[in-house]
From TrEMBL:
This is Lysophospholipase. Residues 33-533 form the PLA2c domain. GO terms for molecular function: phosphatidylcholine lysophospholipase activity; phospholipase A2 activity. GO terms for biological process: glycerophospholipid catabolic process. It catalyses: a 1-acyl-sn-glycero-3-phosphocholine + H2O = sn-glycerol 3-phosphocholine + a fatty acid + H(+). It comes from Cerrena zonata.
Amino acid sequence: MMNVLLIHLLLLALINVTQAWSPTGSYAPGKVQCPSNHDLLREGDSISSEEKDWVKARHEKTDKALIEYLDSSNLTDFDAKKFIRNATRSPNIALAFSGGGYRAMLSGAGQFAALDNRTVGVDETNGLGGIFQSSTYLAGLLGGGWLVGSLAMQDFPSVDEIVLENPNDLWNLTETKQILTKVSVIRNLVPALWGNIQNFFKAVNGYNGKNGIGQELQEKEDAGFNTTITDIWGRALARQLLPKGKDNYMNASTWSDIRNNTGFKNHNYPFPMVTALVRFSKSKAYNSSLPVVEFNPFEIGSFDYSLNSFFDTQYLGTEVNNAVFKPNPFYKSRYAKNKEIVNNSTLYLIDGGLADESLPLSNLMTKERKLDAVFALDNSENWPNGKSIIKTYERQFLDEDDKTVCPYVPGESSFQHFNLTAKPTFFGCDAKNMTDLAKDGVVPPIVIYLANRPFEFWSNTSLLGLKYSDPQKKAMIRNGIDVTSRLNHTLDSEWQACVGCALIRREQERQGIKQSEQCERCFADYCWDGSTFEVEGDYFPNVNFTKTGLTNDSMHLWDTKPGTSTNVSSISVLSYLGFKKRQLFDLFI
Ligand SMILES: *[C@@H]1O[C@H](CO)[C@@H](O)[C@H](O)[C@H]1NC(C)=O
Ligand SMILES: *[C@@H]1O[C@H](CO)[C@@H](O)[C@H](O)[C@H]1NC(C)=O
Ligand SMILES: *[C@@H]1O[C@H](CO)[C@@H](O)[C@H](O)[C@H]1NC(C)=O
Ligand SMILES: *[C@@H]1O[C@H](CO)[C@@H](O)[C@H](O)[C@H]1NC(C)=O
Ligand SMILES: *[C@@H]1O[C@H](CO)[C@@H](O)[C@H](O)[C@H]1NC(C)=O
Ligand SMILES: *[C@@H]1O[C@H](CO)[C@@H](O)[C@H](O)[C@H]1NC(C)=O
Ligand SMILES: *[C@@H]1O[C@H](CO)[C@@H](O)[C@H](O)[C@H]1NC(C)=O
Ligand SMILES: *[C@@H]1O[C@H](CO)[C@@H](O)[C@H](O)[C@H]1NC(C)=O
Ligand SMILES: *[C@@H]1O[C@H](CO)[C@@H](O)[C@H](O)[C@H]1NC(C)=O
Ligand SMILES: *[C@@H]1O[C@H](CO)[C@@H](O)[C@H](O)[C@H]1NC(C)=O
Ligand SMILES: *[C@@H]1O[C@H](CO)[C@@H](O)[C@H](O)[C@H]1NC(C)=O
Ligand SMILES: *[C@@H]1O[C@H](CO)[C@@H](O)[C@H](O)[C@H]1NC(C)=O
């Protein structure tokens, strides 16, 4: 039950599918005048003109930030300013946060923090801070989508602000704040198994009472809209991810409201999006042939064959065909190349990760977005095994996905044999080797693959876990920082420069510029070289980690301060995050 619920509920949690700034001033959708000056539906053969304009303005900021990043990286034989000024176009860098429940949200938060120059402690010496500032796009799926949603809806506060200052008690996943409490599960879940589904809903924390989730749903029902379990899940998550404020966890806010956020309007942050999959009515199979739908501040839609359409996010719920009113925004879309989905008056969305593509890469790596580099921040599976990006790779060859460009990757046992999940790996280092993968002349970007692994904390927490004590939450985030910073740069003092080498690679190739000796060294160290090692089944059945590899020997955790090793969580982890020693005990009970 739990499993089914979570799987079906993890999607679109933050999106109140109504008009912009809900005209009712509440969770209930309301009617507004349609715009007369533009079509609500368009063909999915390019990015929108709004996105084009936005990205153009964003590039002025990313170019500047990238120059700062590259300058601080001390790349040898390289003049960042000259290079970017003379570039054939502005580099497009993207960040992709995988699914994996709260594990992915928290590890992802650490990875995000490590890439953000506002995080105290990551940027002073040789950090990767500044990459978030240099990025054009940012996407999340499921747990990664909660992270992206929580940040984007609030105009991108820093992780430090949320976790350390936290005036709004966000991301509080402690026992009393968790979505389902133990007491409620026993009292409500058990009866639910005998058919009392209503009772189950009431088990959700915050459902009952004045301004409860129940009341919000009632308002939507009263306005003539059906509610589903996703409404409940979304509003329950809102109580953890969004500030309570005067509007009761942003009950009238919509995804398209991001357009009006100051940071978005000023192009201060990357273009945010979350993704889901569409289910065909005739098949219950969850596989790569399901179209990926993205939700960005301007549009919801898909580049994939079956839908090939985009719809204005602000007017979701509008009838655009003279047929029966239903909410499928793509109803009878003439652009869809397979009519099954668009001929159904209802659009059935499912969790983005159900086809095992747990990273939102297919839509980011569409040829239309011309990425140069993308960070694949993989917190799927307990310890990731590469499966997610393998799915993206395979998908690009299907008829359904006629626009994605993804570099070559090996199979799962190669990921394990060559330690590709234990240490950062670059895929697609050589554009010349990928001419067969190019679509309309767009070659795949370099993928900078960073998988969840333990350094200071056992961060392979359960997908279904709903409860994190405050120290556990902070240790998850700290471990995500370690993964991204290579244990606070203790494993490679040139890591920042090596990432810089990856970020400039495509533009160097466009101009035929030879790599420096330093970048060649970096690429020899971090690029997957094309070797494969394929065996059936799990290559490392009981995996443990060294600092840079996988092993079946025993292991211990590390500390960011060299010379000390420690168990489970070090004092330094916690003191870094500003805790008192007393609170340490929370971790062990
Ligand atoms: C955005 O702000 C403008 C004015 O600043 C306002 O007219 C408009 O309704 C706002 N849109 C949304 C979606 O809140
Ligand atoms: C972060 O980077 C941005 C963009 O380059 C810059 O304007 C800002 O000053 C930097 N902030 C910090 C704290 O370094
Ligand atoms: C500027 O770019 C052109 C190609 O676009 C290249 O031929 C030239 O070498 C570049 N100059 C510098 C100083 O990088
Ligand atoms: C870059 O060089 C400066 C000056 O030599 C030094 O202070 C700084 O630590 C170096 N940064 C990196 C990332 O090596
Ligand atoms: C989380 O919520 C609980 C219950 O309201 C509260 O006691 C605690 O102080 C909150 N904050 C943290 C960081 O745990
Ligand atoms: C709500 O659900 C009922 C029962 O499934 C259905 O008959 C009705 O058409 C739905 N209403 C709307 C507005 O979709
Ligand atoms: C939603 O927020 C508004 C304030 O914006 C508040 O008046 C209303 O009571 C809230 N509704 C619910 C059900 O919480
Ligand atoms: C629409 O999809 C639903 C759910 O899969 C299915 O039951 C229904 O038959 C479909 N309707 C049409 C007209 O295909
Ligand atoms: C180079 O291309 C071949 C296919 O032509 C591919 O099999 C191989 O994996 C690629 N190497 C790398 C490092 O991507
Ligand atoms: C992977 O890591 C293990 C443990 O550090 C090491 O023994 C092994 O040689 C590495 N494998 C490769 C192919 O580098
Ligand atoms: C992994 O390490 C732990 C000790 O940290 C040990 O108990 C366990 O047996 C190891 N696993 C394997 C497969 O060796
Ligand atoms: C990371 O390394 C820097 C420079 O060595 C140091 O100042 C900082 O305290 C370290 N951070 C942590 C969390 O250990």
